[in-house]
Amino acid sequence: MTAESARMSGAPHDVARWRKWGPYLADRAWGTVREDYSANGDAWSYFPHDLARSKAFRWGEDGIAGFCDRYQILCWSLALWNEQDAILKERFFGLVPGEANHGEDVKECYFHLDAVPSHSYQRLLYKYPQRAFPYTQLIDENRRRGAHDPEFELIDTGIFDDGRYFDVVIEVAKENAESLLFRITAHNRGPERAPLHLIPQLWFRNTWSWSCEAVPAPSIKAIEVDGRPAVLADDSNTPALAGLLHNAHLGPHVLEFPAGTELLFTDNETNGPRVWGAQSKSRYVKDAFHRRIVNGEHEAVNPARSGTKACGWMRVEIDPGASYSMTMRMGPGGAFPATSPESIVDLRRAEADEFYAAIHPPRASAEERHVQRQAFAGLLWSKQSYLLDVDIWLDGDDPNLPPPAERQHGRNARWRHLNSMRILSMPDKWEYPWFAAWDLAFHTVVMALIDAHFAKEQLWLMLFEQFQHPNGQIPAYEWEFSDLNPPVHAWAVWRVYNMDRIRNGADRPFLEKCFHKLMLNFTWWVNKVDREGNNVFEGGFLGLDNITVMDRSETLPGGASIDQSDATGWMGMFCLVMMRMALELAEENAAYEGLATKFFEHYVYIGAAMKMMRGDRTLWDEADGFFYDLLRFPDGTNVPFRVRSLVGLIPLYAIERLERKWIEPFEVFRENFDWFMKHRADIVEHCVTTVHHDGETTHVLAVVDQNQLQHLLARVADPEEFLSTFGLRSLSKAHQQQPFVFGNASVTYEPAEAATKLKGGNSNWRGPVWFPTTFLMIETLRKLEKAYSGNVRVALRNGHDVQPRNDPESTFADTRADEGLGAGSARPRHRGMTLTNVPVPPPENTTTLTGLAADLARRMTSIFVPDADGYRPAHGPRGSRKAELFARDPHWKDLIWFFEYFNGDTGEGLGASHQTGWTALVASLIDEWSG
Length: 931
Known about the structure:
Layout: H1 3-8, H2 12-19, E1 21-22, H3 43-46, H4 49-52, E2 64-69, E3 74-81, E4 94-95, E5 105-106, E6 110-115, E7 121-129, H5 135-144, E8 165-174, E9 180-188, E10 194-204, E11 219-225, E12 228-234, E13 253-256, E14 262-266, H6 272-275, H7 288-293, E15 306-307, E16 309-318, E17 323-332, H8 341-359, H9 366-381, E18 383-389, H10 390-395, E19 419-425, H11 437-447, H12 452-461, H13 489-504, H14 508-529, E20 561-563, H15 565-586, H16 592-609, E21 620-621, E22 626-627, E23 629-632, E24 638-641, H17 646-649, E25 655-659, H18 660-663, H19 667-679, H20 681-684, E26 688-693, E27 696-702, H21 706-716, E28 723-724, E29 727-728, E30 740-742, E31 745-747, H22 771-787, E32 792-796, E33 811-813, H23 817-820, E34 826-828, E35 833-834, E36 845-848, H24 849-862, H25 881-888, E37 901-902, E38 909-910, H26 921-929
């Protein structure tokens, strides 16, 4: 067992102590819904970047490479100044939708290099320019560009030319569960000696300024430790943190600085004149360090050397090619052992190497291991202390200063029960410094590879009473908790449970408590979204920004409604996962057999409804061989939206199998199942196929029948439709030449950024490759392969495009035994029936379903792996400034960004660029399909 594994496998109390401190600080707190107290809900305008240095945050703090305790009481982060910038670099800069041509976007170059689950070692690299940061240029140029132009990025400004920047590496290591070490190493990559101000900051989150009553504030004051400058931070005399049942006081903590560091002090209070045009609560305010260091205002900082915010100020000049290192130590009372801080940091880094050496799959290449480790690091760095009490947010803290009355009827007004003081997994901490439920579900599948306890905890939190609505709905995301995300939570619970079962043994209490709350969520979906009770669903948004003809979350005029193929497919998948969970629980409690029956029968009703006539049509279009959304009018007429997109492929996800030998022990379920198969044969035949193979009987539960499967998989494997060089396109490429037009709306294949925005900021589902949906397609293909005993092969239009496994005597390494959730072994693949009667030219060859799944996994992994010339597709086309920098420069070539989605033709990364959680699924693909 590695040292890190030992830390994470101890008693729950000991594990919690190691998790007490972590990277739980947001990269951006300004511009968030939580800090928006406007009447119109325009969060970006209400609290812009320009005010972030001067205005105290109510619900959470931000900073560069931030570290804090789990309740974000005491915070540490790094600030920098190069003597050229107009402002202190205290937080990452980015554009808001009104400033950008493709939605909100961070305009900084930073990389999550390393992290472990206990956060005993973390490493982040920030590339800080030596020239003045081009704030105005980035805004002006992006505003000038149109929807068909690419975003103008920091690298595009040329600010990194000639290597005129500092590589600032921030390492955080834990000496023990309570004591932290911070090491900052700045490398001058430029051709000349250059000045740099290193300004690590320590402050208390402002919890004392919001009520109408005076509340004692914590304090930070100057001290010395062995002749070196230090600060003593103490919250002992403050009121207990509201909303908790236990005492969360940290008590006295000492942060030591190197000799020669100048200490500055102020208060974490709003600069009243600058923000409100009114008097400040304190003479010394939040932006004091900026005013002292950049503007030279000596009177801005507290000469008494105390306050609620402090920093250590070190100015250095670094020769070209040289570096400077600054190490700090922080812990309770400053009682540190005599061990060298540098040796502890190096030891923890070596332990991280040891931990990941045991995690990486043996068959993975060196580059795949490198990609996997940075993917894990980004996911771990993206944890955040998510603080929000919606009840207080709606009404305000001070009754004398209530928020605008409009907010009582606006965003999230129905979610007063939601109260979070939890560590949550964020998509990322700049563009998405708030949880998103369906993103989080995918995060947990990756997290389970390195920290199953945290993965299970995250899944449970969305079902916990302070998150899940009393009506059963799971909150979608901060911008609108009531919006609808795809119901993937049950799938994630089941998958994480099985991953953990294989590695650590079955955690049935976790499965059982999640199952109960998921039943409430399922009932909410049925009552809310199946408006007519006919098992065809109108799920609205469902996460697929811009893919459809119109915003499906909006109420349609004239009583029209949309029957959604994807919503109905998602619900079929939901039923099947719940059935499997119920059968698992029935092994110990027979009462669950009845619930397994309930979900099986509901699945059949949904599967049959997808083929049910709606007027003169069904969701399945026989002529095109595809599922479409159906626009229905009150007079009974209807119009299919003939858009070949993920909307029509998602019904494939509803796939399970029931082997007869599995269900024999479940007497009640087996009898109910047999009765239903016999007496409801007219509907069962649409979505249950019985397969006999090698003397065994398997019931294949799939929303799609074999004819539909033939047509859909033919399009999945077609390079002119969904099969991109880099995964599964979200929209068929056929729409590039044949746009779908409906009234004034049209849907055209757009492999990169979409020109049309129906919903969402950066998001585009009109052609790019997205990791979560392709990951589920890979799961589907694997399940179909097992369900049909490996006897199904897919006809390929372009034989050389997919790498088929055609030799009937060859073996294919299926690295996922037992439901595809653990390391497996090679086993033979046999030639079986080939899917025929598909609307494509005669195939040159075929591949197995698992072969197609493996090929999709390879394509997606290739986005991040450099080719023979060092180019990673994610970093853009050859010849571009960005691609050349990442391929040629030794200080960039090993760095990887994990983007929100990827160009469907080139693989270039798009949207959010810094670990949009679900893109970390590449780590799972490497774990399961490498080699």
